[in-house]
Design goal:
This protein has 160 residues and is mostly helical. The protein has two domains: 2-29 and 120-156, no CATH class; 40-106, DnaJ domain (Helix Hairpins, Orthogonal Bundle). The protein is built from seven helices and two strands; from the N terminus they run ααβααααβα. The chain has a two-stranded antiparallel ribbon. The longest helix has 31 residues, at 126-156. Keywords: Chaperone.
């Protein structure tokens, strides 16, 4: 079943509706792969409910411990780079909120194919957000079906 879905996705991205290539992306999410989002909370050894002050304190503590001036081994250098990356995301409110949202989406996705569409305006309430998601799903579905019909007609030798 997955092979068939992958071929449909491939046909979709090669379809005639080129404007969708810049707007929508198909993503295959498989747990426990290198594509999975890093757990920055685990890297900084804080809870996901930690305050900005707790995150900063954990960052300072770990960066002192693994700083390349204190430890010269390669593991410490890699760990220090991970710590800096984690703090660069969790240290800012907007990037932390985006990261938390991505974590929740990936946790719910499981082993499925998902569609990423343009970000909704930030001032939408929950009803507006649900409506926006439904409209985007319909647009993708119609474009996908249009591509499948177009590809099928192309195989038959006729034009849509």
């Amino acid at each position: 079943m997955k092979e068939i879905m992958v071929s449909y996705v491939f046909l979709f991205t090669l379809g005639r509706t080129k404007f969708l290539n810049n707007t929508f992306r198909w993503v295959s999410k498989r747990p426990n792969t290198s594509a999975e989002i890093k757990d920055y909370y685990h890297i900084l050894d804080v809870k996901s409910t930690a305050s900005p002050e707790e995150i900063k304190a954990a960052y300072l503590n770990l960066s002192k411990k693994y700083h390349p001036d204190r430890r010269s081994d390669d593991v410490a250098k890699m760990r220090f780079a991970d710590i800096r990356e984690a703090y660069s995301v969790l240290g800012k409110l907007d990037s932390r909120q985006e990261y938390d949202t991505d974590r929740k989406i990936n946790a719910l996705a499981g082993d499925t194919f998902r569609i990423h569409y343009p970000r909704p305006p930030p001032d939408l309430d929950m009803v507006g957000l649900k409506t926006y998601e439904n409209v985007m799903r319909r647009l993708v579905l119609f474009a996908y079906l249009d591509c499948l019909v177009g590809c099928h007609l192309h195989k038959l030798g006729s034009s849509p």
